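Hi F.,

I've been meaning to write this up properly since the lab meeting, where we talked about keeping a consistent format for the predictions we share between groups. The idea is simple: the sequence comes first, exactly as it goes in, then the structure tokens exactly as they come out, then a line or two of notes. No screenshots and no reformatting. I'm using this chain as the first example so we have something concrete to point to.
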Amino acid sequence: MATKHEVKQYLAYWFQLGKKVMTNNGSASLLPQPVIQGDRYSQEFENCWQQIISPETGDCYLEGTQETIAELLTPSWEMSHCSRCTMPVPMRSLGMPPELCPCNDLLNWPNTELPAPRSPVNNQEQLTAIRDRLNNVSSTSR
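Output, unedited:
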């Protein structure tokens, strides 16, 4: 089962490549910018996420896909990685996978010369983890 966190991360990655979420049966779209701000998702992205999961918004789906975000939040779906571009894609827990990855209509993707989309990173946590690893290495070599 895809968790809310995984679906949110899936959307954040695709938003970073310019994919939109279609709302109200395709009559409107959402593309928050920026997606990441420092060590967290931007307020624009958080507001967009709240709108996407709100029942009042109606069916929402990532541009170029057929599965609604509400469907992805059911036990029938889990997140995997596209074999072509390694971006997150939904897969049915049972049965056939979706026909296409959202990367299918991106002419310049995958592009290994650009940084890949990412999740927010807490620099302080990362530096603390590096320090702790270095301390462990130095204490075991004494």
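Notes:
The first strand starts at residue 21 and ends at 23.
Helices lie at 4-16, 43-53, 69-72, 123-140.

If this format works for you, I'll send the rest the same way.

G.
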